[in-house]
From TrEMBL:
Residues 5-178 form the Ketoreductase domain. This is SDR family oxidoreductase. It holds the Pfam family adh_short_C2. InterPro entries: KR_dom, NAD(P)-bd_dom_sf, SDR, SDR_fam. Belongs to the short-chain dehydrogenases/reductases (SDR) family. The keyword Oxidoreductase applies. Keywords: Oxidoreductase. It comes from Cryobacterium ruanii. Coiled coil: none annotated. One of its GO terms (molecular function) is oxidoreductase activity. The keyword Oxidoreductase applies.
């Protein structure tokens, strides 16, 4: 039986984040979700915060700590996209994606580390993407933000690894979400042909890897990048 922990999932109101929150709840953990809108799964505590605002994130943590105690597991999943080709990409298209996806993860990890250092225990899981290492035309901003999470996790590992804190990255490929369902059928078929597994993943397949990394069995894994992409990126 895994020890019950206080878990925070950012962007836990839909898609992969929602599935991750559900999975932790099913394992008996105390789960809080940070989102700008919508709600986490039934049984979770939903807290409003803006990933680009450190004071807002601090307030969210204070609320979670008052209800559930110190955050022991952080899953940084919140992210946005502003896809367009490099030549058309504005400064704002680039900086806003970096500020939410990468700087937002930094803000959350920094705030969580206070309690983790005190407890000499912590699990940090950053949700990257296959495009963070594989690249993707029209996603210079997004792939840069997702690649940056790897450097973040590895530096945190070197700083905090001796205090019982791990930091790892999960890099999903194509997942069955509202976003992929909205793609034209021909495009979906095209993507599936490029994936050795021949299909998209379910959100729960990503969630299972995240909860394993956060659990007692993965205590000696840190600074790792685990692809959940059906072989698309081949661990690039």
């Amino acid at each position: 039986m895994t020890t019950a922990r206080t878990v925070l999932v950012t962007g836990g109101n839909r898609g992969i984040g929602f599935a991750i929150a559900e999975d932790f709840l099913a394992e008996g953990h105390r789960v809080a979700v940070i989102s700008r809108s919508g709600h986490g799964p039934s049984g979770s505590l939903t807290v409003r915060a803006d990933m680009t605002d450190a004071a807002s994130i601090d307030a969210a943590f204070t609320e979670i700590e008052a209800t559930y105690g110190p955050v022991e597991v952080v899953v940084a999943n919140a992210g946005i996209t502003r896809d367009t080709l490099l030549m058309r990409m504005s400064e704002d298209d680039f900086t806003s994606v970096i500020d939410t996806n990468l700087s937002g993860a930094f803000r959350v990890v920094k705030r969580a580390s206070k309690g983790m250092l005190k407890a000499r225990f912590g699990r940090i899981v950053l949700i990257s993407s296959v495009v963070g290492l594989y690249g993707s035309a029209g996603q210079v901003n997004y792939s840069a933000s997702k690649s940056g999470l790897i450097g973040l996790a590895r530096s945190v590992t070197r700083e905090l690894g001796a205090r019982g804190i791990t930091a790892n990255v999960v890099a999903p490929g194509f997942i069955e979400t509202d976003m992929t369902a909205a793609l034209p059928e021909a495009q979906q078929a095209d993507y599936k042909r490029s994936i050795p597994a021949g299909r998209f993943a379910t959100p729960s397949e990503v969630a299972r890897v995240v909860s394993w990394l956060a659990g007692d069995d993965a205590a000696y894994i840190s600074g790792a990048v685990i692809p959940v992409d059906g072989g698309l990126g081949m661990g690039h």
